[in-house]
Amino acid sequence: MNKVIVTTTINSPTKAIKLFDSLKDWTLIVIGDKKTHKDYKIDRGIYVSPEDQEKYDKNLSNLIGWDTHARRNFGHLIAKDMGADIIAMVDDDNIPLEGWGENLLCGNEAEVNYHETKLDAFDPIGKTNYNHLWHRGFPIQLVHARDNHKSIRKNIKVDIQADFWNGDPDVDAICRMIYKPICSFSEEPFPLAGNKPSPFDSQNTFMTKDVLPHYFFLPHITPYGRMGDIWSSFHVLSLGYNVVYNKASVYQERNVHDLTVDMKDEYIGYKNLDIIKSINNKTYRKENFWTKKCCDAFGAYKEHF
Question: What is the pTM (predicted TM-score) of this model?
Fold first, then answer.
């Protein structure tokens, strides 16, 4: 099985990048940006410079723009060209724990704790030992109403495997301001899934090659991309792909963030409930939420498939 890790960075190789690069069963692709050091080097993997990206597809490069996490879309295309069966999306501040990327559920059928909520959306963090927190992208309007339903055991096909993160978890800025969480998630509730749409991120997530043509990290949604991966996840879920959340497999030593800037960048997330309702009602159309430039960029990305 051909397995590829994709990330983007403006930093020198971090501890996390060096560890991902050392995994013998995986190939690491690092996508550079304008701020990435010109002498960026890794031992085993592939570094793709801004110049290389423009040679690959100048039109797509122009449509995505620079200084954005959406540059990692070039990594997905290169992974496709390499014949990847499984693609892992990671961030450079997520340090892989022992066993990362082993015994994958992704691409298989798995028995999970399946939650049947009556709300419009499902929050996976709400079913852990940190149930006062909520996942980035979960509609904040529903946080107060999360229900205490019981799960059933169910076999489902795993198209996307979203592993959790010990340390500083992927919660939104408001949640982080209130609780300043540092987590050690219990393995007991995992793997888990829900009957309603739920956000998954791009920082420790595996997807099959079948999902790849439809997963596009959205540029031009917010300046810093705090909803770019979340809206991408909603688009994929609208097409009927299944996400399963699995136990923590990284420790996040989060890069420095200004939480006020993050909060402003997440403001558009108040539309998340509208997006999710449209998915549930089968009226979802990406054009109702994405910018025209974002739709054009996705169109250019799709031309490679």
Answer: 0.97
